[in-house]
Design brief:
The chain is α/β, with parallel strands linked by helices. The protein has 2 domains: about 190 residues, Alpha-Beta Complex (Aspartate Aminotransferase, domain 1); about 260 residues, Aspartate Aminotransferase, domain 2 (3-Layer(aba) Sandwich). Helices cover about 35% and strands about 15% of the residues. It has 15 helices and 19 strands. The strands form 6 sheets. The protein has a 7-stranded mixed sheet with strand order 4-10-9-8-7-5-6, with helices on both faces. It has a 4-stranded antiparallel sheet with strand order 13-14-17-16, covered by helices on one side. A two-stranded antiparallel sheet has the order 1-2. Strand 5, helix 5 and strand 6 form a beta-alpha-beta unit. Helix 2 runs antiparallel to helix 9. The longest helix is centred in the first third of the chain and has 20 residues. The radius of gyration is 23 Å and the shape is globular.
């Protein structure tokens, strides 16, 4: 049964909020920045309020509230693994802060042997790129020139070239720049045939598309999966890392040490706790875990296949409108049929207006929230813009002098299942107007941040929310 749009809208917090425009009027905010973070489900907020009265310290507490909190936290691990089809005999679920923290945990534990490398790609978010540089040698699979998708032939060639030396293949599940979805099953098979483990950065995938990690004996399994709760309608700082239990249970120390992940400490020795406690030092974020699992249950109730289908329709509508706008370039795959292999993340640019100015105009004059810049994916954006390494390096002097106003970038429109066709038409109408008529006000640029602001106009932000209100 198709997903009922009205039921999705009713789940969201803040959709009725109005924001000020330069004209002095207010307009209902149109949030098209879901790839950065999503609004929370109302049921998630309700669940946190309901549980708050029972909140207590997790683990080793004899008090009743501590027992309830511990039982809930352990149940959350089971539910997270089930949601993504993890193998309980092979995988372990680690609750953490976000995908960045999760991938860093794997990086710190990997300990490459001499001659080994990590194979990732130029389309990665920095969270799935920079941690591997801290681990050891890194090789990058390229993307295709025509649509920016992962070049599987290049990936295969690099696996062959470094045969037996690739310890891990780490690839995004869905790009936070173009929405492109590299095929996980095919990449997993390629990685495993080369003797490597396979990690998926699922930050942009898990909230929008069904994921099945698979059993230990499946050559198309996902060995490691990382994702963040704040991108799937659940705030409170939750996230998850799922990986092979054996990888974390070996004799080496955990990635972070402290309270809670040691069973015994003497002057000269440590007995580390079993998983997942070994990789969850400090007081666990039970509220973050609860919010994540509650959001997962809501998404399950909607049906992940239906969520993906609805977002596919929205993405197809968006691409159809954007490709008809003069002087506007859409980066990545613009074929409408290609929407089946992408999530609802679309980036655009125009020679007529700077990317940061365009996003500022959409905000100040239209009440639309989008994002601009390089989206923590500098290698990929430079590749999409056709910039050479030398051209990118030329911006270093600007950055080191505190001037980010000339940095290249794109404007990103990113969708959630709650977005409406009317919102898509509205942002496209706004883009047509801005590119045809220009901004309605004069703007200045803050060179330190690269952001644009309307001249002679400022908001009293604390009027809308303040710690003292």
């Amino acid at each position: 049964m198709p997903l009922n749009f009205d039921s999705v809208r009713r789940q969201m917090a803040g959709l009725d909020r109005k924001v000020p425009l330069l004209t002095g009027e207010t307009r209902r905010y149109v949030n098209l920045d879901n790839a950065a973070t999503t609004p929370p489900f109302l049921e998630v907020l309700d669940a946190i309020r309901e549980f708050a009265g029972w909140y207590g310290s997790v683990h080793r507490g004899a008090g009743f509230k501590s027992q309830i909190s511990t039982d809930l936290y352990e149940e959350c691990h089971e539910e997270i693994g089930r949601f993504v089809g993890a193998d309980p005999d092979y995988h372990t679920v680690i609750c953490c802060g976000n995908a960045t923290q999760a991938i860093n945990s794997v990086s710190r534990r990997l300990r490459l042997r001499p001659g080994e490398i990590v194979l990732t790609s130029v389309m990665e978010h920095h969270s799935n790129l920079l941690p591997w540089r801290m681990t050891g040698p890194v090789e990058y699979a390229d993307v295709r020139d025509d649509d920016g998708a992962l070049d599987l032939e290049d990936l295969g060639e690099k696996l062959d070239r470094h045969k037996g030396k690739v310890r891990l293949v780490a690839i995004t599940g869905a790009s936070n720049v173009t929405g492109a979805m590299p095929p996980p099953a095919r990449i997993a098979r390629m990685a495993h045939e080369a003797g490597a483990a396979f990690l998926v950065d699922g930050a942009q995938l898990v909230p929008h598309h069904p994921v099945v990690m698979g059993p230990a004996d499946d050559p198309e399994r996902i060995d490691f999966l990382a994702f963040s709760a704040h991108k799937m309608y659940a705030p409170f700082g939750g996230g998850a890392l799922i990986g092979p239990r054996e990888f974390f249970n070996n004799a080496s120390p955990p990635s972070t040490v402290g309270g809670g992940n040691a069973s015994l400490v003497t002057r000269n020795d440590v007995v580390w706790a079993d998983m997942p406690d070994k990789e969850e030092p400090g007081t666990p974020n039970v509220l973050g875990a609860l919010s994540l699992v509650k959001a997962m249950k809501i998404l399950e109730r909607m049906g992940m296949e239906e969520v993906a289908a609805r977002e596919r329709l929205l993405t197809t509508r968006l691409l159809a409108r954007l490709t008809e706008i003069p002087d506007l370039r859409v980066h990545g795959d613009t074929a409408l049929g290609g929407a089946c292999e992408r999530v609802g993340v679309v980036t655009i640019s125009s020679d007529k207006i700077h990317h940061a100015l365009l996003s500022a105009v959409l905000s100040h004059e239209w009440g639309i929230g989008v994002r601009d810049g390089c989206f923590c994916a500098h290698l990929y954006v430079a590749r999409l813009l056709g910039l050479s390494d030398g051209e990118v390096s030329a911006f270093r002097t600007d950055v080191e002098s505190g001037d980010e106003s000339r940095l290249p970038g794109l404007v990103r429109i990113s969708l959630g299942a709650y977005n409406s066709p009317d919102e898509i038409d509205y942002v496209c109408d706004a883009l047509e107007d801005v590119l045809s008529n220009g901004p309605r006000a004069r703007y200045y640029v803050d060179r330190a941040t690269g952001q644009y602001f309307p001249e002679g106009y400022s908001y009293k932000l604390r009027k809308y929310f303040s710690l003292h209100s």
